[in-house]
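Appendix B. Raw example, untouched.
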Amino acid sequence: MVEGQEDVTWDDWVAIAQACERLGFEALFRSDHYGSVEGFGERGSLDAWGTLCALAAITSELRLGTLVSPATFRHPSVLAKNAVTADRISGGRVELGIGTGWLEAEHRAYGFPFPPLRTRMDRLAEQLEIIRGSWADGRFDFAGEHWSVERLDARPKPVQDPLPILMGGAAGPRGAALAARFAAEYNVVHPAPEDAAAARERVRAACEQAGRDPATLTFSMMHAFLIGADEDDLRARAGRLGEWQDGGVDIGEKRRSWLAGTPDEVIARLREYEAAGVERVMLQHLLHRDVEALELIAAEVVPAFA
């Protein structure tokens, strides 16, 4: 998972995607932000769905998706069409991650409304209704408080039936309930193992309340990592991370709160999340030009979970 708003260029995206395919990673996800989350105004961001459509055309096996697209950025019909376009270009390799939107500064900078969270949740719920309806066969009507569509039969339909929807957050009551209705996957961000287990239980309960088999909703997490073949390699990479975030990196703290350390340490940490019920992991690759880190994960970490 790459934070595309932190000055990831098109050449960078090509190199990342090529490395992911060569090394056998299942999927490449990207954030959907227009402004730096780290607060660096000089860093640029290519549009998430424009990027995914382009990557879909130059890859052959890699799955592609957003983690996640804010419901505040796009009309639901536009977002549904974006996802279908990428799915068609890729031959059925796209996943739509969608959420409420949270970074107020970028909304104000780009002129997107940023209402209170309750309203953003309302808008997200309506977006999910319209997106799912636009992908279904036949005409579709929806009249909501924020959006309406009339006799919509959006064509073409996705290659995948259904195209996977991914939702994420803290698995609060409303978010978990929406996921139980609409999502193929629920994702939590940077949890401790015990927090992941608690969120997994809340999602399971929401599925049961909705009459859905909890086993049909994949539970995943996105987590930052810092890896080194040995201590010297780990310290060198920590130094580069410190330069990237304009601040020092405490390796001991990262070992406690991230997926950090040597490959054996990262594997042991991932085993804790596996025991907590996490089924898929999106590794947050902050040093996006560091292909060697991906090579180390592919060679030393991934085989432990094959």
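End of appendix B.
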